[in-house]
Amino acid sequence: MVRRRLPSLRALQAFEAFVRAGSMVRAAEELCVTHGAVSRQIKALEQQLGAKLLTGPRHNLTFTPTGRELAASLSAAFDQISAALPGTDASEDLIISSPGTFAMKWLIPRLANFVASNPEIQVRIVEDDGPVEFGDSGVQAAIRLHKGAAPSGLKATAFLDHAFGPVLSPALFETAGGTPMQVLRLPRLHSETFPGGWDQWAADVGLALPPSAERSFEHNSYLLEAVAGGLGVAVTAWAFAQADIESGRLIAPWGFRALASRFTFLRPSLAKHPIADRFAIWLLAEGRRSKQPPPSLFETGTFSRLVV
What we know:
Helix 2 packs across helix 3 (35-49). The chain has twelve helices and ten strands. Helices cover 43% and strands 20% of the residues. Strand 3, helix 5 (100-117) and strand 4 form a beta-alpha-beta unit. The strands form two sheets. It has an eight-stranded mixed sheet with strand order 4-3-5-10-6-9-7-8, sandwiched between helices. A two-stranded antiparallel sheet has the order 1-2. The longest helix is centred in the first third of the chain and has 20 residues, at 65-84. It has three domains: 9-84, Winged helix-like DNA-binding domain superfamily/Winged helix DNA-binding domain (Arc Repressor Mutant, subunit A), CATH 1.10.10.10; 92-158 and 261-289, 3-Layer(aba) Sandwich (D-Maltodextrin-Binding Protein, domain 2); 163-260 and 293-305, 3-Layer(aba) Sandwich (D-Maltodextrin-Binding Protein, domain 2). With 308 residues, the protein is α/β, with parallel strands linked by helices.
C-alpha cells in the first residue's frame, strides 16, 4: 500500500474554512479558534506545500493561482467526507440570510415554485439585513441590496430592480381628496431601518415637504401594516408593497422611482455550492417574471406645478 503524503488536516481545514467564509475572523468563528490561529495554520500549510496560497495585505487577501486551485478542490473533498458520515441526511440544505420584510413580502410567497421543482432541497431563511457573515450559523448565501461590482471574495447575482415611493390606503387617499398637496399633509410614517426615506424621495422628485405629523416604526413590516390601517402615508420599496398594491390594500399615487441598488444574491465565490447556484438561477427567473411598478395616478408635470 502506497502511503499518502498529505499536509496537516487541521491546516487544510483552516484554509478550507477561510475559502468559504471569506475572512480569517469568520473562519475562526466557525472553527472556534482565534483568527491568529487560522492565519498560523495557513502559513504552516504554505510551508508544508512549499507554495504561497494567499497574497496581498491582511485586510484584502487574494488567492495565488496555487491557492485558487487548492481551494477549488478542498471544498468538494470536505463535502464528500461530510456526505459519507453516518447519519448524514440525503436531503440538502440551503441557509439564506435575508432582510425580514423582503423575505416575508417577496421571497417566501414565491418559494413554493422552487420547492416544487426541488423537493429534495431544504431552504431555510434567516432574518438579517446587516453585513453578510458567511460561516456564522451555517449561512451559505445572502440577499442584500447592493450596487456596483461584486464585493471582494463574493459571487453576486443581481436579480431584482429596486424602486421606492409613497403608499397609503385607498380609504385615506379618498379622505385626503385624492390631491397631491393633501396627501403630502397626511401623517408621514417611516421605519427605523430607512429613516431618510421621505427626504430622499422628496429630493429625488424635487419638492419640499409640507409640515406634517410623523410616526416611526421599528420594522418595515410594521410600517406597512400601519399604512394599510390608515395611520398615514409611507415611502417604501416596490418589492415590499407589491402584493398589497395588487390586492388593492394599498395604492401608490406617485408610482415608484428606480434606485441604483438592486436586490442581489451573494455567496462566497470560491466555495462550490451547486444548490446555491441553482437558487440564483431561480431568483433570476422570478425577478424577470416580477411585474413593473404602476405609473403615477397624477398627471405628468404635477411636481413642477405643486405648491406646498
